[in-house]
């Protein structure tokens, strides 16, 4: 959990000021090619042929940047969402955000590289008299379109615009996932939330089927920045962009069964989005506690782990009676943590896979005593995960992270 | 104490003499007045610190009527008599007139809360001066803590300036109020009910030289860790046997080769005592103690939400965290009323022996739990400590 990692990727790029456009837009970049691979795999997944295919060895190994587009009416909360999720802004401070006037492009480096484009709500990109947008530039590399609807406002116009957008996109880009965030539901009662969701769903599906579009890839999420729901919704969105998610999930399911975990999550540490979980039914409560646990670890790391120790300190610790470098005195190169809850003595464990990813699991009661065996299994899974993500890594250098040669009776 | 960790658990608990032990058994009561204008946030901060409210839950609190008395047991052998005094003007006048002696005598600590957003600063200060006069008159020895509260409402850039400005003002007013009372003292000396001990300043002194005030100021907000900083200082001086705790923590820290040890009270998670090694002193985060309180407290909330147990219940027993070759730390339930957090250099052997040694050191700190020092759990520690030495 290196604290430096947050500073790496979050460089807001504003390219709408004319000359500073980064590159010619018609050019098919390696990233676009890689995205093509992502789409292909997504489509395969949709067609439920996932397990049958073998990954194409000729697929480009270059980095790809799936793009998330945030769209919706003005003041629906798009910029707040991206600030809270990707820039760790406290939700209470989103009140002071100014309205977005231009397309705001963020690039995030994590286990995968993402771009997040925040569209100003007042611009209609399909029907703009002053400026025609290059559709390919916007939608060509897209991973998912997130449409934000303010549930506390009159949403009819938003729904109408969303319908128009879907119809536009359906013609040229039929594989774009459309994720509808029914947002700001924190102030609404549970019943009312579900009513709204039903209403919005029906309005969109009716409109689409009237136009002859069936089974459009539209998903709905109830979200709020004041609780974990926005992170959960983003998790679902991002998971759809991960190639071979099924294998990842199978790995975690296997771990849970072997070690008798109640629930395991693979977290992206910087955003607290979980990119995979095991196959047991998801529940919000376990996600919340795991995500808060990641927070606790990040905070402790910042206070005690982010400043350099003196040379004398190191020399003393590496001298007698230990007589080996500090790196040799520890069992695990990355963060490793456990906590026992007083209630039913259920332990929670966390293990970092690399500097972006952490495995967090809630264990069954009484399993704290079996930590050594569990750690061996975790080692194996971590090794597997490292190999898995080697593909999506922007560059090499994470090799040899997994402790080699550990034999586990349960996994492998 | 011994250089080898094995030496720790054996022998006399740190040479605490029998006389000192007798003193340890005494239950200490402290009267703490919590005052300030209505709506300044007194009850909110009390609920957060002692009743585990979340900051946003405090919206539910209504106005305090008259005086809300509560007894907070702290570390078993210290009881805080917390007088949460409703701040509406009618009540304030009442405290200063009819109930004057009742409210202001035998006070250990006065906590006065200023709302930084208040419109009528002059009037707030006038009330404050009246309170201080009454306090000095009846409880000369009382410590005064002034909290400039709701600092979150001030723009972060100007917070320091605003606080400094207000602090100077409060300091000056306090000094004036105290000086006036001292001057009047010869005439109304017979009214004194408490504090027969010698006065800190010669009462004949008519100069404006600052009397050695027991005054401390803090900028606070319920939305961040600043509240924990202020309250940790408030309780710090009240904790009995502080010197003993500190020396014992220091010996423990040296023995297990730790970088930092923090001792938390169980419910409030305020830092009772701490020890830091010379290397640990290099930590650039000066606010880490209150941050730890804040982190652990909010973690406790998460746990209670997850498990569905009451907020005040104990939520976790053991925590350990090894950050590769950078550092390791663990937090564990220490005595009945405390948690201990140890931050130390990396290394598996070092870590495991430190855990065993901390468990073995529990009997030394038994006195923290209350007037009755029980001898149970005293056994078994020595063996564990012996096993835990890294060089064995």
What value does the Rg of chain B take, in angstroms? 23 Å
Distance between the termini of chain B: 19 Å
Structural class of chain B: alpha/beta
Q: Approximately what portion of the residues of chain A adopt beta-strand conformation?
A: 15-25%
Q: In the CATH hierarchy, what is the superfamily of the largest domain in chain A?
A: P-loop containing nucleotide triphosphate hydrolases
Major sheet of chain A, described briefly?
A: 6 strands, mixed
Give the overall pLDDT of chain A as a whole number.
Answer: 76
What's the number of structural domains of chain A? 2
> Quick one: overall form of chain A?
elongated
What oligomeric state is this? heterodimer
The percent of residues in helical segments of chain A reads 25-40%
Please list the strands of the largest sheet of chain B in the order they lie side by side: 2-3-1-4-5-6
Rg of chain A, alpha carbons: 23 Å
Helix content of chain B: 25-40%
Briefly say what this structure is.
The complex is a heterodimer of chains A (412) and B (392). Chain A is of the alpha/beta class.
Report on this structure.
The complex is a heterodimer of chains A (412) and B (392). Chain A has helices at residues 5-9, 30-46, 78-87, 135-139, 156-172, 190-210, 229-239, 245-259, 284-305, 311-318, 326-329, 371-390; strands at residues 67-72, 104-109, 113-118, 142-150, 177-183, 218-222, 261-268, 273-277, 335-341, 347-352, 357-363. By secondary structure, chain A is an alpha/beta fold. Chain A has 2 domains: 5-239, Rossmann fold, CATH 3.40.50; 245-390, Beta-Lactamase. Chain A has a 6-stranded mixed beta sheet with strand order 2-3-1-4-5-6. In chain A, strands 8-7-11-10-9 form a 5-stranded antiparallel beta sheet, sandwiched between helices. Chain A is elongated. Residues 1-33, 43-63 and 395-412 of chain A have low confidence and may be disordered. By secondary structure, chain B is of the alpha/beta class. Chain B has 2 domains: 5-21 and 241-388, Beta-Lactamase; 27-236, Rossmann fold (3-Layer(aba) Sandwich). Chain B has helices spanning 18-24, 42-51, 89-96, 100-104, 121-138, 159-188, 226-236, 242-256, 288-307, 348-360, 381-388; strands at 28-36, 67-74, 78-85, 109-115, 143-149, 215-219, 260-265, 271-276, 316-323, 327-333, 338-344. Chain B has a 6-stranded mixed beta sheet with strand order 2-3-1-4-5-6, with helices on both faces. The longest helix of chain B has 30 residues, at 159-188. The two termini of chain B are 19 Å apart. The model of chain B is unreliable at 1-17, 188-210 and 372-392 (pLDDT under 50). Strand 9 of chain A pairs antiparallel with strand 9 (316-323) of chain B, so a sheet runs across the interface. Chain A: One of its GO terms (biological process) is negative regulation of autophagy. Chain A: InterPro entries: Gtr1_RagA, P-loop_NTPase, RagC/D. Chain A: Residues 16-26 have a biased composition (Low complexity). Chain A: One of its GO terms (molecular function) is GTPase activity.
């Amino acid at each position: 959990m290196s604290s430096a990692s947050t500073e790496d990727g979050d460089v807001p790029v504003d390219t709408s000021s004319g000359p500073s456009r980064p590159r010619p837009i018609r050019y098919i970049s390696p990233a676009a090619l890689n995205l093509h691979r992502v789409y292909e795999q997504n489509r395969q997944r949709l067609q439920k042929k996932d397990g049958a295919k073998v990954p194409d060895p000729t697929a480009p190994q270059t980095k790809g940047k799936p793009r998330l587009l945030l769209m919706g009416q003005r003041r629906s909360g798009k910029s707040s969402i991206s600030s809270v999720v990707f820039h760790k802004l406290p939700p209470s401070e989103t009140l002071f955000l100014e309205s977005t006037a231009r397309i705001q492009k963020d690039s995030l480096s994590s286990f995968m590289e993402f771009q997040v484009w925040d569209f100003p709500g007042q611009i209609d990109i399909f029907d703009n008299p002053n400026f025609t947008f290059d559709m390919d530039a916007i939608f060509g590399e897209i991973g998912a379109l997130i449409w934000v609807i303010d549930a506390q406002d009159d949403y009819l116009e938003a729904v109408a615009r969303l319908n128009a957008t879907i119809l536009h996109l359906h013609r040229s880009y039929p594989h774009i996932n459309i994720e509808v965030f029914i947002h700001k539901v924190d102030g609404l009662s549970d019943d009312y939330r579900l009513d709204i969701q039903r209403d919005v769903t029906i309005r969109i599906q009716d409109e689409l089927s009237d136009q002859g579009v069936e089974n459009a890839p539209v998903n709905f999420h109830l979200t709020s920045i004041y609780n974990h729901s926005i992170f959960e919704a983003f998790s679902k969105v991002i998971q759809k962009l991960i190639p071979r998610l099924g294998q990842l999930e199978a790995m975690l399911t296997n771990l849970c069964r072997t070690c008798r975990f109640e629930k395991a999550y693979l977290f992206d540490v910087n955003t607290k989005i979980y990119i995979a979980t095991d196959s047991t039914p998801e529940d919000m409560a376990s996600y919340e506690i795991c995500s808060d646990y990641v927070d606790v670890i990040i905070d402790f790391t910042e206070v005690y782990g982010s400043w350099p120790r003196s040379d004398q300190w190191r020399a003393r610790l590496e001298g007698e009676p230990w007589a080996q470098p500090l790196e040799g005195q520890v069992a695990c190169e990355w963060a490793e943590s456990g906590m026992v809850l007083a209630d039913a003595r259920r332990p929670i464990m966390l293990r970092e896979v690399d500097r972006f990813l952490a495995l967090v699991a809630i264990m069954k009661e009484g399993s704290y005593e079996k930590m050594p065996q569990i750690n061996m299994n975790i080692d194996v899974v971590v090794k597997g995960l490292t190999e898995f993500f080697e593909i999506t890594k922007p560059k090499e250098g994470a090799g040899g992270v997994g402790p080699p040669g550990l034999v586990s009776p349960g996994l492998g | 104490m011994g250089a080898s960790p094995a030496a720790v658990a054996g022998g006399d608990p740190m040479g605490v003499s029998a006389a000192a032990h007798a003193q340890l058994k005494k239950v200490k009561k402290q009267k703490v007045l919590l005052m300030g204008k209505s709506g300044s946030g007194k009850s909110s901060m009390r609920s957060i610190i002692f009743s585990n409210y979340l900051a946003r839950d405090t919206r539910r609190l209504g106005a305090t009527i008259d005086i809300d008395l509560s007894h907070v047991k702290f570390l078993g052998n210290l009881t805080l008599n917390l007088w949460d005094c409703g701040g509406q003007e009618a009540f304030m006048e009442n405290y200063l007139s009819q109930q004057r002696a009742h409210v202001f005598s035998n006070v250990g600590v006065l906590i006065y809360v200023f709302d930084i957003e208040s419109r009528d600063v002059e009037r707030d200060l006038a009330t404050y001066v009246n309170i201080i006069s009454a306090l000095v008159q009846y409880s000369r020895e009382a410590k005064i803590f002034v909290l400039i509260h709701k600092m979150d409402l001030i723009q972060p850039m100007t917070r320091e300036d605003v606080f400094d400005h207000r602090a100077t003002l409060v300091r000056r007013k306090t000094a004036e109020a105290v000086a006036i009372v001292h001057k009047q003292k010869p005439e109304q000396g017979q009214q004194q009910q408490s504090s027969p001990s010698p006065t800190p300043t010669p009462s004949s002194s008519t100069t404006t030289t600052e009397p050695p005030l027991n005054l401390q100021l803090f900028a606070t907000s319920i939305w961040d860790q600043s509240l924990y900083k202020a309250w940790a200082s408030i309780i710090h001086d009240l904790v009995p046997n502080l010197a003993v705790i500190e020396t014992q923590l220091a010996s423990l820290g040296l023995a297990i080769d730790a970088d930092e040890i923090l001792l938390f009270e169980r419910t409030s998670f305020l830092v009772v005592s701490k020890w830091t090694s010379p290397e640990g002193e290099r930590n650039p985060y000066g606010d880490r103690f209150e941050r730890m309180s804040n982190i652990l407290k909010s973690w406790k909330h998460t746990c209670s939400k997850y498990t569905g147990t009451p907020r005040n219940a104990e939520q976790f027993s053991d925590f350990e965290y090894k950050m590769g070759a950078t550092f390791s730390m663990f937090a564990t339930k220490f005595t009945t009323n405390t948690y201990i957090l140890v931050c130390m250099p990396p290394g598996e052997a070092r870590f495991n022996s430190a855990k065993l040694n901390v468990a073995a050191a529990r009997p030394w700190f038994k006195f923290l739990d209350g007037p009755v020092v029980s001898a149970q759990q005293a056994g078994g520690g020595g063996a564990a400590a012996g096993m835990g030495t890294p060089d064995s």
